[in-house]
Structures are given as C-alpha cells and as structure tokens.
C-alpha cells in the first residue's frame, strides 16, 4: 500500500514538473513567437470560400503561395474567387458543393485528392445564422444551422484526415465563435453549433495526440463580430469597444495563428477575458454583465445576411 502511494506521488510530481515546463514554454513562445510555417505549395481546402471570411482566407493563403481549393454552394461566387486568385498569379480550383450532403462531400473530396493531391490544410469555415428564438425557429432552419455549421465538419474531416495521418502532416481548422463560449438569446441553434465545433476540435486534437500524430495540428478559431454581413443589423452598446473586424484583417490574424500552430485563435484578443469571466462569475452576475454590454438586446435588430 505504501509503495503504491509512493509510486503515485512520484508520478504526480513529474506530471507537475511537466505542466510547469509547458506553462513556461507557452510564456516563452508568447514573448518570442515561433517562426510561422510555410504554406507554399500546400493544398488548402476552404469551405464557404465564396464570400466573407472564407473568401478573405482564400485570398490570403494564395498570397502565401498555397494551392487553394474553394468549396461553396454558390457556383458564381466560387468562380469569382478562383478567378481573382488566378488573375493575381495564384493557383485555385473551385468546386460547387452542398457540404451538408455527406455523399457529395466524400465524392468531391475524392476528386480533389485524385486530381490535385493530398490536402494539408482544411479550414471548415462555412456558416449560416437563423437569428430567431428557439420557440420561433422552424425545424428546417435549426437543422440547416446545425448541419452547415457543425455536422458538415465531420464529413470533411473524415474525408481529408486519413491522408494527413498517412503523412503525419496536416492541419484541421474549425471556425467557431465567441458564441461558442457564451450563449446568447436569439441564437440558440447558432451557439449550439459553435459550442459543438469547439468540442469537436478539442476532442480531435486529443485523439491525434494520444495516437502520436504530432505532425497533424488542430486550431479552433473564435472570432466575435466581423463585417461579413452574417450578423447584419445587430446593435452593440459599445461599438467602439467591440468594433466589427474587417474580414481581411481577421483572415491575416487567423492565418498567422494557423502558421504558428496555435490551438486557439481568439479575436479580438480582449475577449480571451470572456472565457475567464464565464468560468469564475456566478450566472446571475454574468447575466448582469451581458445585459450591461448589450448582448441580451443585440439580436432584436438583426436583419440577416
């Protein structure tokens, strides 16, 4: 019995040492960031790349020499983004696809792998907003929100992850939201989908770590409000403090985080504080704070994309 306790104590001591070392390493990398990895000639698939953040991510990765594969349900938008990239001297391929159709995802992914090559970066960006309270949301809108924003990630990851694991080289990115940390009235289905993306990326990262695939990275991106029109019409009490981020600026920040293999990318950085406050504040206190900043009334003026 004593020997068992001693063994556990020694093991726990070394776990603590390891944790301290990792904390110090993180602090060091915060002060002296690691060199960003190259995306030159890497094949990148971006869902929802026909407009908004997805388009900005496609253009930004193209500037870095990546081979960009654009997935979107809007054929005209797909072709327009691909044309912009090619006119700038980049390489782009466009595929019109409904990512909620898993058979279409698997078939299109197979075409990409066969015709272009192994994908080393998958950015699950496609997203929609319903913008109604749960009781006023029709079932089809709820299903669409969950299928586009979250369920589709399963199909795209299952399609492209095996080839990444085979080479122990790749990166999976899930575009979540600050609303994946804190729920909001009028966005029950949307928040649920973004909470799920956080859980998916965290769990997948754990599976890869346990399986020793240290060359396949996972990043969860949690932006607040961007000027993509997705949340057109909402009002924020302190707009100077929570200014809508331009899609181009967001894309640069996100790609930098991906290139540095960050596990989480939050923008603006101020909202890292939000996750801390949710963890320590009683729910009534958090409600008062959210009311003060205008979160509880924000969706009353929502007009949609």
Quick one: CATH superfamily of the largest domain? NAD(P)-binding Rossmann-like Domain
Form type: globular
Compute the number of strand runs.
7
Q: Runs with pLDDT <50, length 5+?
A: none
Largest beta sheet: strand ordering: 3-2-1-4-5-6-7
The CATH class of the largest domain is identified as Alpha Beta
Tally of discrete structural domains: 2
Q: How far is the first residue's CA from the last residue's CA?
A: 65 Å
Beta-strand percentage? 5-15%
Largest sheet: 7 strands, parallel
- State Rg: 21 Å
Do you know the CATH topology of the largest domain?
A: Rossmann fold
CATH-level-2 architecture of the largest domain: 3-Layer(aba) Sandwich
Structure description:
The protein is α/β, with parallel strands linked by helices. The protein has two domains: 1-33; 41-301, NAD(P)-binding Rossmann-like Domain (Rossmann fold), CATH 3.40.50. It is built from nine helices and seven strands; from the N terminus they run H-E-H-E-H-E-H-E-H-E-H-E-H-E-H-H. It has helices at 2-31, 52-63, 75-87, 102-115, 139-167, 188-210, 247-259, 272-280, 283-293, and strands spanning 43-47, 67-72, 91-96, 121-124, 170-175, 216-223, 264-267. Strand 5, helix 6 (188-210) and strand 6 form a beta-alpha-beta unit. The radius of gyration is 21 Å and the shape is globular.
